[in-house]
Structures are given as C-alpha cells and as structure tokens.
Design a protein that fits this description.
Helix 10 packs antiparallel against helix 11 and helix 11 packs across helix 14. The radius of gyration is 22 Å and the shape is globular. It has 443 residues and is an alpha+beta fold. The chain has 2 domains: 249 residues, FAD/NAD(P)-binding domain, CATH 3.50.50; 112 residues, D-Amino Acid Oxidase, Chain A, domain 2 (2-Layer Sandwich), CATH 3.30.9.30. It contains 14 helices and 20 strands. The strands form 4 sheets. The chain has an 8-stranded mixed beta sheet with strand order 6-5-14-15-16-13-18-17. Strands 8-2-1-12-20-19 form a 6-stranded mixed beta sheet, with helices on both faces. Strands 3-7-4 form a 3-stranded antiparallel beta sheet. This is FAD-binding domain-containing protein. Keywords: FAD, Flavoprotein, Monooxygenase, Oxidoreductase. One of its GO terms (molecular function) is monooxygenase activity. InterPro entries: FAD-bd (IPR002938), FAD-dep_Monooxygenase_BioMet (IPR050493), FAD/NAD-bd_sf (IPR036188).
Length: 443
C-alpha cells in the first residue's frame, strides 16, 4: 500500500512557539503521527508580554486559535517614542489603520495566552499529536534517510531510548542540540555569541499602581511606549485586557551574574536595575520601583551567525534554532510561527514519501523562509543600534528624523513603527507564498 505524506512519522523537538505551531499546522494538514519532545515538565505558561503582529495573527487564525488569543489581548492603535531622561515625546505614530491594511490588528498579549491557546489547539488533535514532556533530546544520531535521536526521560527510573522518524524538526531554541549536531556533521563552524546586551522583563499589575494616576492611564491605554537613552531603552504596553503593564528593557550586559549556558538567565538585583536607568525620568524610575525585591530577572541576549543551511537530509531547523533575533522588531515568535506554518504546507505537498523528496520539500521551506528571517534579524540589530545612540553626529541625524516625523515627513528611526517596514513584514503571507511557489521551488 502506497504511503501518503500524511502517513509520515514526524518528530518535533521542542514545544516553544515554533514547535507548537509545527505540531498544530501539521495536524491541520492531516498528518497523523506527530510526536513532540519537550524537556520541561509542562509548558508552564509563564513569561512576559509579547507583540502579536498581523503576520502572526493571520497564521494563528488559519490554525483556529486566534480568537482565544485576541480575546485576552490589547489592540494597539498608537506608539509614542520618548526621550528616556526627560519623557519628552520624540515621535508619535498612529496605527489605527493596521487592521484595514493587513486584515489583522497589531495586538499585544501575554506569552502564556499565546502558548496556552496553541497548546489547546494541539489538544484538539490528540489522536494525531502526542506530547512527551520531561524528555530531553540528548543527541541527534542521524539526519536521514530515517533520522534518529536519543530521548532521555528525566525520571531516572526510565531508560534512555532511541527514536526514529521520517522527519525531524529541530525547534529546540537558541541552545539547539539539533543545530549543533547538524553543523558538526556538515563541518560548518558556528556558535552562539554574546551581543553584550541584556534584558529585564517586568510585569506590573494594575492593583499595584491603583494610587498612581499616571501609570493607571498607561495601563488603560492602547499605546506602546518606548523610552530611549544611550545604549538602553524600555518598551512598555498593557496586556491581559489592560490589567497588567509589561515592560521589557535592553541595556549593556554589565550586571549579569555568571549564569550557566543552560539558562542564560539569572536573578537580578533591584538596586542594580534602578541604577541602570537612574538617569531616566521620574515616572520610569517610579515604574521600575514597583518591581518587588527578589523578582528581578535578567536575560542574556545571544544570537549566532547566519547558517549556510537549515536542512540536512530529512531534518530541518525551526525558529530560534536557526534565526534567533534581537527583540527590537518584536518578530522573534512571529518568525518561528511562520516557520511552523510553512514547513507543514511544504511537507503536505510532497508528491511521494521518499527521503529525496522529503529533503526537497524541506528545502522549499528553507527557500521561503531563510532570506526573510535573516533580513529581519539584520534589521532588528540595526534598529537597536539606532535607538541606543548616545551622542554625536549619528544621534543628531536620528533626532532630526524624529523631528521631521513630527511634521509628517520621512521614515521612523524606530523601524518597528515605520510604515514601510510594517508593509514588508505584515503584508507578507508566508502560507500563500509556499502554496503558490511550491512546484517552482521543489523542481
């Protein structure tokens, strides 16, 4: 009996945004044997705020999970870019037309809402998707024609076991074992590198600031606010139906304790955090002071050089495993979600289930996604450099652009809010692209 693509055994390594999207999108395409391996005991549903751009919303809607996410999110209609030290507004960008232009609004939400709704979507296909929590992928032993890896249960009473599949999708994040093994096999030198930047992620609940009218107004707004200063910035917005204010900071990686490579995170010092932004305006300092002592966490921001390939034989990399990005365009999760949607469609279009055809289909996924993802990685890094200027001619030129923007002229130096950049990011339909160009790229 001839096998169809939907008969393929597919192993997804990692249950982050990319891995969950892979599993759900594959199930929607009719794949019946999808196994997801995740080292955590469960998804945890933790994290901070996340931006839900139209290119993400479009995919999530087609996967049947957008309505639940949208119901808990906040619709952003404007962004204010401000000088950190004075709170003076450098630019104000209206975003009311985003839904009209791209079919979906620009919303912001809580990461737990996004992950939770994706997981609930997967559970609707419980006969097709099986989750293996508390299971670490120790090594990828083969990339094809039947890729295999060693799965290690965290329960020491259970023995490690070997898993074989027809396709392996490495959605195992910036610390990806799949990427390391693939690049070693191909003799390609690559490695994670520090960006010399770190981030605090902060959630302030409305009841904490109920006696602070300025902050209550921010939580009740539909606005993203960015405060910028030399080598630092804070981006903030309300989430969870305007009940929580989310702040994400970027600053030089000076206070980070000696964290292990396994976590990239460490408990931070509230005193140190307040010192980093000590020259910012009183309102920002007041906001940061609401963070309870002992609840300060700092993240190292790391990336790696662009990879020559994301695919080897019947194995492909997904999301941060192949294109980790700085957060200045707020597209990290969106790009992982695009990956998952595209790879599912590419595999569903297979003319046969031979290993050679699987490799070609995975190369179609790479063709649709790779240039776009790396363009956004570069753009995010460039936007961060522009935001963090401290003095000199470059800052003067940037501030002239902000001044021109107030007169309705020219581009936005903060590329996340620039209309041309939004058109390029939000207007691209990754699923349509792979559907329309599959045959061309496959051949």
């Amino acid at each position: 009996m001839t096998r169809t693509p939907q008969d393929l055994q597919i192993a997804v390594l990692g249950a982050g945004m990319g891995g969950l999207t892979c599993a759900l999108a594959l199930a929607k395409e009719g794949f019946r044997q999808i196994d997801v391996y995740e080292s955590a005991a469960d998804l945890g549903f933790v994290g901070a705020g996340i931006q839900l751009a139209p290119n993400m919303g479009r995919v999530l809607d087609r996967l049947g999970v957008w309505k639940g996410i949208e119901a808990e999110a906040v619709n952003i209609v404007e962004t204010s870019i401000r000088e950190g030290s004075s709170n003076d507004e450098l630019a104000h960008v209206h975003m009311q037309t985003i839904r009209e232009l791209y079919g979906y609004p620009h919303m912001v939400g809580h990461r737990s809402s996004l992950a939770g709704n994706l997981y609930e979507g997967c559970q609707r296909y419980a006969d097709q998707i099986r989750f293996h929590f508390n299971t670490t992928v120790q090594s990828v032993d083969s990339f094809g024609p039947r890729p295999s890896f060693t799965a290690v249960p965290r329960d020491s009473s259970q023995m490690p076991y070997r898993v074989e599949a027809d396709v392996v999708l490495g959605a195992d994040g910036i610390k990806s074992q799949t990427r390391v093994a693939m690049m070693e096999k191909l003799g390609i030198e690559t490695g994670v590198k520090d960006t010399d930047q770190a981030a605090y992620r902060i959630l302030i609940h409305k009841d904490q600031v109920k006696d602070d009218p300025e902050l209550v107004d921010l939580i009740n707004s539909n606005q993203v606010t960015r405060w910028i200063g030399e080598k630092r910035h804070i981006i903030a917005y309300p989430v969870s139906n305007n009940t929580i204010y989310n702040l994400s900071t970027i600053q030089p990686d000076r206070n980070f304790a000696a964290a292990t490579n396994a976590t990239y995170t460490t408990k931070g010092s509230k005193k140190a955090m307040l010192g980093v932004f000590g020259d910012f305006c009183p309102m920002v300092r007041r906001m940061l002071n609401y963070v309870p002592e002992g609840e300060v966490c700092e993240w190292k921001l790391r990336v790696h050089e662009p990879l020559m390939t994301w695919v080897h034989e019947s194995t492909a990399l997904i999301g941060d495993a192949c294109h980790p990005t700085l957060p200045h365009l707020n597209q990290g999760a969106a790009q992982a979600i695009e990956d998952g949607a595209v790879v599912a469609i590419a595999l569903s279009r297979l003319p046969d289930t031979s290993p050679a055809s699987i490799t070609k289909a995975l190369k179609v996924y790479e063709k649709v996604r790779k240039e776009r993802a790396y363009t956004l990685v570069d753009m995010a890094a460039a936007s961060g450099r522009t935001l963090h200027l401290g003095s000199g001619a470059a800052k003067a030129d940037r501030d002239k652009q902000f001044a021109a923007l107030k007169e309705g002229k020219g581009p936005v130096p903060d590329k996340w809010a620039d209309a041309d950049v939004q058109r390029m990011i939000y207007g691209f339909d990754c699923q349509k692209e792979v559907q329309e160009r599959f045959e061309e790229y496959f051949q």
